[in-house]
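In the laboratory, one determines a bound structure by crystallizing the protein with its ligand and collecting diffraction data. In a computational setting the workflow is compressed into a single prediction: the sequence and the ligand go in, and a structural description comes out. We illustrate the idea with adenosine-5'-triphosphate.
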Amino acid sequence: MPREAPWVEKYRPRKLSEIVNQEKAIEQVRAWVEAWLHGNPPKKKALILAGPPGSGKTTTVYALANEYGFEVIELNASDERTYTMIERYVQAAYTMDILGKHRKLIFLDEADNIEPSGAKEIAKLIDKAKNPIIMAANHYWEVPREIRDKAQIVEYKRLTQRDIIKALIRILKMEGKTVPKEILYEIAKRSNGDLRAAINDLQTVVTGGVEDAKEVLAYRDVEKSVFQALAQVFATDNAKKAKIAVLGVDMFPDELLQWIDENIPYVYYRPEDIARAYEALSRADIYLGRAQRTGAYSLWKYATDMMTAGVAVAGVKKKGFVKIYPPKTIKILTESKEERTLRDSVVKKIMKEMHMAKLEALETLNYLKAIFENNSEMAAHFVVYLDLDLKEVEFIVGDKEKAKTIWAKSMNIEKKLKKEGELEARAREIRKEFEEVETTEEGEEIEEAEETTEEVQEETEEEISEEELEKATKEIEAVGRKKEEKKKGKQATLFDFLKK
Ligand SMILES: Nc1ncnc2c1ncn2[C@@H]1O[C@H](COP(=O)(O)OP(=O)(O)OP(=O)(O)O)[C@@H](O)[C@H]1O
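The predicted complex, in structure-token form:
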């Protein structure tokens, strides 16, 4: 199933004027960059955008580049290669400038993660810079002193709940969707001023079905730490940072492995990098298996290192914000509304027809899935037995073509059963009538009728053709009609007698 583009990217403002409630900051950034463009570099050649997550710092840099025609060279402070890269671009920027190409703007994210050992180097590079260097940090005071001294600070405010709600409503309008007011408020409250988190929640709620919004939000709350931790693992190329990122996650390593497994293809795009990441993951899996078999749980540490550090350094990652998806196996809540409704109705039918409790029924559903995928004959019998409709069959088997085959078979079974049922009912009626009407000479014919019914039933268990069924039905009906006439005849006599 193709996933929809993350709304945080889709609705990232392209113009500075679209950035909400950071007017003062934007004004300072504009003035600073215009000084560069007027051939008059500002005294402080670097800028530090400081403020809480999801308040618009990265957005500012890209909107700025868009409006003023810069090419952004984005570097991450936690990447050890950053220093050499900055050096290269600081030099290259000058050359490119002379050639009249796009000016380069160096964007250094997570400036509060710069190692003290590298800070001096970067400070020197700022002195030599021929092009703007913009840094972003959540905690201004954690940016190394040497760098702070060379940079102008621009403060970003934490967005208010009102700002967040306004931004969410704008997105809903563009998507043509609505969400109950109380859900919007709930999302805004939880976001704590982080518009990125709020937009992600909104997207989950809207695509997951509004009725379950509370549940979805609760779920996200529980899993919050794993979403955050994995975003960090996938944002860094630094082995140590990747390992540290998952320390606070309350999850067994095998479950964590599933999460990482699910997200690798969204983080890496080059096949060789994806392969390398999966290679690290499979080594982690080997350690986990060994720990499980031998009880040597100290191996968990190696497994976790492999799946975090090993995966983080596997190659070149996609640019921009990484959205983390829960693994499919534990993704019930992120299924579509329709899928959930179908699951519920199938489970209810299993509970009713097979007299099971919900948990048991859920387990049975898994068996049914296996049966439906592999044995359409048996599946068809279940369809009739549980009285499933075509949509439910499609949901169980997960394949439209297979569902059609099973459905066709189930219709045949249904037809046969209907005929059998009619025959049986008819035979029952006849039997009853004969019990009511005292008879001696008709006994044979009752037996005759019963035999015919039994024959038909026996045959039905084998294979019988439509014509044979038709013939047998007619026979029985004929016998029935005969009895009817006799019965009527007898009543008439009685009636006549009474009349007399
Ligand atoms: N002030 C804002 N106005 C409009 N949209 C915003 C604003 N702040 C954040 N956003 C939205 O939230 C998303 C994340 O914002 P952004 O990447 O700019 O955050 P940030 O401040 O750089 O956070 P971090 O420190 O976590 O990197 C953006 O895609 C954008 O859609």
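Confidence is low (pLDDT under 50) at residues 94-99, 330-335, 452-464, 483-500. Keep in mind that any predicted model is a hypothesis to be tested, not a measurement.
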